[in-house]
Every structure is written in structure tokens, then in C-alpha cells.
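Hey, resending since the last one bounced:
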Amino acid sequence: MTEAEDSCLVLAGRYAVLNVLGQGGSGRVHEGLDLRTKRRVAIKLALGETPEALSTSIEDLRREEAVLRMLRPCKYIVQFLDGGEWSGGYFLVLEYLDGPCLEDILEAKRRFPPDLAVRIMLQVLKALNAVHAAGLVHRDVKPSNLLWTSGAIRLIDFGLTSPPKPRADAKDSFTYGTIGYIAPEAIRSPTSYDRRSDVYGCGHLLYKMLSGQHALFGQDEGRYTQIKLLRRHLHRPPTPFAQAAPEACISSKLERITFKALEKDPDKRFQKTGKMYRALLSALP
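The C-alpha cells again:
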């Protein structure tokens, strides 16, 4: 153990908390070390400036732990290792994944070649299929929740994941979901979502990977209020690829698949991730 590791916080007599990796709505993520196995891990700590905020963060991490325990092992989903209480707080231990998130890659490259975008999307759909098989809906499919590591995608954040039924604590559509990827039905009612809502998020993810911009906002998301952005999900059709990114040369078949996932009416989308997966396989060159 290094001097820094020797002086750091140790959880459950086993997990050394090291440098900060990032912070989200439900907690702060640190790099850590499992002192028993000498394995690098990621440690998510409950965070709150007030007792009420800390209590909410603890509740969120407990809910996320329960979700992760429900999932069967999947190579495209971050592995849950441990969780527990410490000094009035709560922590989760996850496998350490070394690699950039898809959002950072897109910012650097702007867009991907169609075959790469489709292959990435196939991995995301496999991850979501495992989530849905457990009777859950992820509810926050977006580039920042996907890590690229060892040549594969990993779905990493399950803070909003829940069964497809109303949540007693659901207050409004702004609280749950990311505004660029939230499905129209969840805007109308924050408790109206199912696996087809994840398909809608996949449609936006695929569109962005193919074109380098958002299907409804283009590159001007910052110009609009939240209300205007949400109205676009409800009423505005996606911009055709020939108009948004003519240089990308997106095939008509791939556009049809993407736009089917982006249907406003969930009954008109792919009803299962497996169906979108098979459609995309047929679109590969």
C-alpha cells in the first residue's frame, strides 16, 4: 500500500477511497482499491450538503444497489461488487472501468461512420435487453452513461432504473430522465414509461452517433428553454439525415430504423430491444 492509500478513508475495512472520478445526482464516484484482492474498483458515495439531501442520496444509492442486484451478469453492463453503510452514509462498489464515455468521444469526433455507430448501438441494445429481462426500464439512455473500454461499450448508471410502473416519489417529468432523451409519454406523465421508452432513447443516441447532432434540437439545444425542448419531443419530427448531415451518407434503411425508434407514439416504435437489434443487424454492410 502506498503512503496515500495508507492515509485514506477505508470502507468496511476493505475498500480504500482514492481520487475523485466524477459526481452525479445521486453521489460522488471515486477510484478505489480493494485491499483484500488488490483490485482497482469504483466507489460511489452518498453525498448531501444537508441531512435531507444526504438522506435522499442514501435512498437513491440503496435503490440503485437493489436494481444492480437484480441484473444477471452481462458483458455490456458495469459489474456490481458490494455495498453498505459507513458513518451515517452509504456506498456502492463497482468494477473499475478505464475509458472515456461516449459523450466525450462524440465531442472529439463529432460523429461515427455508420457501421461503427450501428455496432455500438447493438452493444447498447444487448445491455438494455438484460435490463428489460429483469423486469426493469433503464430510463436514462444517453452517451454520458456509456463507457468505451477494452473495445466494448458498458452501461454504467442505474440511478433512474426502475420497474415499468408508477413511482410513489415521482413528482414531475423534469426530475426523472435527461431532457435530450426523455420519451414523449414520460413528459406527459412521469410515471408513464416502459421498455419502449428506452427504445426512444436509443433512437436519439443512434441519430447523434450518425449525424453528430440531436434529432430535434440540432446543435442549438442551449438556445431553448426546457419547455420548448420538451415540446419538440412531443410535436417536432426528427430532421432527415440528408438535411442534418448530408456528408454522412446514411442509407434510407438505416434512417427508417432510426426514425421508427423515434416515433412519438410508443405503439409505433420497436416494441422490444431485440426487434431493433435484428433490424440493425440487417442494416450492416
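The longest strand covers residues 15-23.

Sorry for the duplicate.
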